[in-house]
Amino acid sequence: MSVDYRATVFLPQADHFPMRARLPKREPQTLATWDEMDLYGKLRAQSAGRDKFVLHDGPPYANGHLHMGHALNKILKDVINRAMQMRGYDANYVPGWDCHGLPIEWKVEEGYRAEGRSKDDVPVTEFRRECREFAERWMATQIEEFKRFGVEGDWDHPYATMSYQAEAQIVREIGKFLVSGGLYAGTRPVLWSVAEKTALADAEVEYHDHTSPTIWVRFPVIKAPTEELCGANIVIWTTTPWTLPGNRALACHPDISYSVIRVDETYEDSLAEFGERLVVATDLLSSFVGEVGIKHYVEIAAIDGKKLSEDVVCNHPLREAGFWVRSPVLPADFVTLDQGTGIVHIAPGHGTDDWLLGKQHGLDIPETVDENGVFLEHVPLFAGEQVYTPKGKEGGANRAVIDKLREVGALLHRGTLRHTYPHSWRSKVPLIFRVTPQWFISMGKNALRHKALAAIRNTKFYPPDGKQRLYDMIANRPDWCVSRQRRWGVPLPIFVHKQTGEPLRDPDVIERIATVFEAEGGDAWFDSDPQRFLGEAYDAADYTQVQDVVEVWFDSGSTHSFVLEQRDDLKWPATLYLEGTDQHRGWFHTSLLEASGTRGEAPYEGVLTHGFVLDGKGHKMSKSMGNVISPQDIMNEKGADILRLWVVAADYAGDVRISDEILGFHADAYRRMRNTLRFLIGTLHDFDPSERVDPAEMPELEQWALHRMAETAQVIETGAQGYDFTTIYHHLYQLCAVDLSAFYFDVRKDALYCDRPDSLRRRACRTVLDRLFHALTAWLAPILAFTAEEAWWAHGAGPEESVHLRQFPEIPAGWRQDALAAKWHKVRQVRRAVTGALEVERAEKRIGAGLQAHPVVHIADDALAEAVADVDLAEICITSGVTVTREAAPAEAFTTDDAPGVAVVVRLAEGEKCQRCWQVRPDVGSDPRAPETCSRCADAVTHLGMAAA
User: Fold this and answer.
1) How far apart are CA 458 and CA 461, in angstroms?
2) Which ranges in 1-65 belong to alpha helices (H)?
3) Where in this protein would one find the motif 'HIGH' region, according to its record (predicted)?
């Protein structure tokens, strides 16, 4: 009686973990199951008493659907939190939102404009209510979208900067600066948006290409210590002609050399005049005369910058037309030779450097333009002219100034320049520097700068260069402007005495305001009698109630105080802040300043930054370019786990590219890793712990596999400590796709499928596979959060309800055997030579499968020969036999650079094909109980009781 040998082969059984993942359908089901089992609650209960790992969430803005930048940021946070949880920490994640500020106001105002209304026609509290409702709607939407990424966190109790508790705490935080004297009212230039009619923080500014007019202007010298300078014209160059009405000085660098030249000949269209004397930087002379059309000139004097800035005074170029201003020449280190003339016109109301230089030398700091960018009535000649319209179009100010300069003979040349220029991140209109009364936190008062710099030195940065970047920003930044002329925000809790102009610095008043806000929110500031906040100690009639709101970067910079400090399930300072690299000037920056000013140290122990998301060609994504990729579309088509692979696969310390081609590559990598898990599940479907073999009794190949697990465990630990999940991912991919699927599994399939169940080799292999399954599902869980869970449930391998309730396995140190690994590295070199030779034979159709072959392997290299001396190469190379010889190889032998010193000649194996294992062996048919099999398979069939009668 013949035997159906297929029934005696132990093939994998993994139908419950299909090769086709169908992630878009399966992942929402997994999310529902996590919700039903209260996975978050179980994680918190499991973690009680552990050391806390707190990744404090930088608040995204509640005003739209999530984009790829959100996906990169939130998934990376989730990968880190899950890994830290599985390393034995209590890694509670509390998501949060930024809810105040200009973008939300702008959206609500858009609705008003569409209806022909103005927000000025709406009561403040009604407008604020609409802003709050807008933010609430988008918070709810974004919560569901973040969950779909697979992000685990306290979604039922997130934080929001617009919560009454948060608004009250922000009042207390700003109040600390007020009471300590660090908060003051001042007039200085700020970046101003004429569209939004408010000052903007650095982090709210984008830089785009912009075409500006350029002018070279004469400033006549009326006082100088040398005869050559008297009567000469110092020439300046500027891209902002409209700032000239605010000019109050000139600046030169004390270490730059300057030349006084006499114009002897000009080109026809030049505005330069024969015989006039001009002063410019010597190193810029050549480019200068070419620009302004001077054909011939004579250098009549040279003067260094130090001398030029000593007792030299010019008239304003429009003095005769009504600007009765004199402009002294001052020394300034910020003057460069990059372009222009090496001499800068100083308008203290229109630039930070100008303002600082003006303050240093006691210059008048005029206010020339209003909130609409329109010249004020007191400005001679140009009152009513506008710099930019609310839609960002150029007004008439530049043209009016240039025309007047030409009319009075002060204009030497004009042109245009295409350059980067600051724009509002919301309205996209160009910005202006405008001097306005604002509220500032002093960087010098209470040693804030010193404290912040010290805190940076005590903080770990990932990557390390972020430390110097933030340090330089803090070292050089001006005082912090924290007031905004808007409505939707936390009101500045300030009362100013009408007679003295001094703010009220009373902690009791601050606490009274905060207490009211905790119960009613910031709206109370606008609809309450001021006396309610002042109490009995002060008379409201003596004070002006400030109507500005706190800038939103102070809101988010204060989150540590109302999240980390006020929740028992978190800690202060946070273990880690993680955001995009732009947050060195944003959230990292303002959180550092706020905490350093109120607590004397940073609110974080570490700072990790990632880059921006770009398209496949390295371009920024924009709707106008049509290159925007939506994370929702990716998840609907491929699944969130593909998105999660994309996050960790790239070096996220830099910019990260995404495209259909890149996602296709990650989908292929995912399939390889999934197939690794599928093979493990299939071959372990009936595994019993009683099968386990002690590592010391295992064959070398199994010991090598355990060594690779030990190596991987070290990579996981080192990578997790440094938040380097890119290295972790690539190592896991190499392990799954190359070391396991393409080598270890490939070699051991024969033993797994065909050995007797009680054979040492098969039992040892299954022991290793069991260990691998438990380790891989844990190691992959932070990255492939859905797939690792699916595999864990499919195999039913442990008591935990979820793979995410597990911890990373402890791998015995004894499993690591570097000498054994070195030996098997050489074995695999020889194997690559054999498999290469087999591929050639298959391509030539001389064999159909490797089991038909019996290669002869010529090894000239002593180390390689020694490595394979006690190894069954036929088993390793998956052939029916191998002959190893030290004899010289024939000329036609196959060689490869991967295995120098190895040459292979492929011969056909002798014998018959075993109908069970398909090896070609001479002993096929030797056992009458299974006449069509080799002796190994006949023994297995007999053991199974399925031999022929």
Assistant:
1) 10
2) 23-37, 39-47
3) 60-70
Range in 159-173, 209-223, 311-325, 925-939 with the lowest mean pLDDT: 311-325
| pLDDT tens per residue across span 405-433 | 999 999 999 999 898 888 887 788 899 88
pTM of the model: 0.86
Secondary structure of residue 694 in the 3-state scheme: coil
Which residue is it, tokens 């390393």? 87
Instruction: Tell me which residue of 112, 3, 34, 133 sits closest to 941, measured CA to CA.
Output: 3
Residue with tokens 């000949």: 265
As annotated, the binding site for ATP includes 623
HEC string for 175-243: HHHHHHCCEEEEEEEEEEECCCCEECCHHHEEEEEEEEEEEEEEEEEEECCCCCCCCCEEEEEECCHHH
Other C-beta atoms closer than 10 Å to the C-beta of 114 total 8
Mean predicted confidence (pLDDT) in 325-331: 93
Burial-class residue 568 by CB neighbours within 10 Å (0-12, 13-18, 19+). Answer: exposed
Q: Which residues are annotated as a binding site for Zn(2+)?
A: 914, 917, 934, 937
CA neighbor of 688 nearest in space, from 766, 751, 745: 766
- Structural domains in the chain plus CATH codes: 5-19+657-816 (1.10.730.20), 213-368+394-416 (3.90.740.10), 820-910 (3.30.2320.20)
Distance CA(230)–CA(332), nearest Å, equals 22
Percent helix, percent strand, percent coil in the chain, to nearest 5? 45, 20, 35
Distance CA 600, CA 455 (A): 8
CB-count exposure of residue 221 (10 Å: 0-12, 13-18, 19+): buried
Q: Which of 284, 267, 268, 264 is nearest to 276 (CA)?
A: 264
Residues comprising the binding site for L-isoleucyl-5'-AMP? 579
The DSSP string of 702-766 is HHHHHHHHHHHHHHHHHHHHTT-HHHHHHHHHIIIIIIIIIIIHHHHHHHHHHS-TT-HHHHHHH
- Residue in the structure block whose two tokens are 């105040």: 100
Could you give the dihedral angle defined by the CA atoms of residues 789, 794, 795 and 801, in that order, rounded to the nearest 10 degrees?
50
With beta carbons less than 8 A apart as the criterion, state whether 830 and 859 touch.
yes
- Cα separation of 743 and 745, whole Å? 6
CB 440 within 8 A of CB 183: yes
Mean pLDDT of 676-688: 96
The total number of residues shown for the chain amounts to: 949
Confidence of residue 948 (pLDDT cuts 50, 70, 90): low
Binding site members: 579, 623, 914, 917, 934, 937
CA atoms of 411 and 549, how far apart (whole Å): 43
Sole residue written with tokens 């990790």: 608
Question: Distance between CA atoms of 9 and 755, rounded to whole angstroms?
Answer: 9
What DSSP string describes 335-372?
--SSSTTSEEEE-TTS-HHHHHHHHHHT------B-TT
Whole-angstrom distance, CA of residue 641 vs CA of residue 625: 27
What integer is the mean pLDDT of 636-651?
96
Q: Please tell me the distance from the alpha carbon of residue 921 to that of residue 854, in angstroms, as a whole number.
A: 10
- Reading the block at residue 676, the tokens are 């690794």
* The residue type at 659: S
- Residues 726/791, Cβ–Cβ less than 8 Å: no
State how far the Cα of 263 lies from the Cα of 539, in Å rounded to an integer: 69
The per-residue pLDDT for range 471-506, each reduced to its tens digit, is: 999 998 989 999 998 899 999 999 999 999 999 999
- 481 strand-pairing partners: 440
Preceding amide of 573 cis, omega within 30: yes
pLDDT digits over 801-812, tens only? 999 999 999 999
First to last CA, the chain: 7
